[in-house]
Amino acid sequence: MKKNIGEIIDISNEIYDKGLVSGKAGNISARFKGENGDMIAITPTLKSLSNLNEEDIVLVDLNGNVLTKGKPSSEVNMHLEIYKKRPDINGIVHTHSPYATGFAHSSKKIKRYEGFGEIKTQFLAEIEYEKPGSDELAKNASEGIGNEDVLILKKHGVICVGENLKEAELLAVFVEETAKTQFVTYILNSVEDKI
User: Quick one: average pLDDT of 141-161?
Assistant: First the structure.
């Protein structure tokens, strides 16, 4: 368990340092086996991911019962619903990374590039806006992720999932770099060549 909590702290620092979250935004979680079944370690509510310590990480069971001190992220139900629907997922990273979130606030979609795995669809999956922390968001996100590894939350941010937390983090970085490349491409294509 200490290893899982340490990994959450390390990855929280990494995604903050890479600019995938800022302020007190974003949250991450990992699933692991406990004595009485699956447990989820999740970042706390209203704390920056930049300077978490071991006592900040909150443990909950799959029913949302808090097993330690502290208050879990307001998005805990979204994480739990995804874990319940996807037994193959053991790590979730939810970011508000600027380029990908910019796409989420626009009418443009993020194209699915190689590096996401097999390209089955042209664009990343997305769902319409629901209030952060709401039951509707939890339900729609768990349904929207389906068999995907990335989900764009319109006017909100990005969810990346993986068989472990590191895979979810790598995917979140890749999504942001993909969005940045596509943004630059749109800008360049919109400027008439004067040469």
Answer: 96
pLDDT, position 193: 65
**CATH number for domain 2-190, candidates 2.60.260.20, 3.55.10.10, 3.40.225.10, 3.40.50.300:** 3.40.225.10
Structural element, H or E, at residue 175: helix 165-190
Confidence of residue 190 (pLDDT cuts 50, 70, 90): confident
Edge-first strand order for the sheet with 150-153 is: 58-61, 37-42, 27-34, 91-95, 157-162, 150-153, 125-127
Q: Where are the domains of the chain?
A: 2-190
- Which residues are catalytic, by number? 75
Tally of CB atoms within 10 A around 62: 14
| φ and ψ of 169, to 5 deg | -65, -45
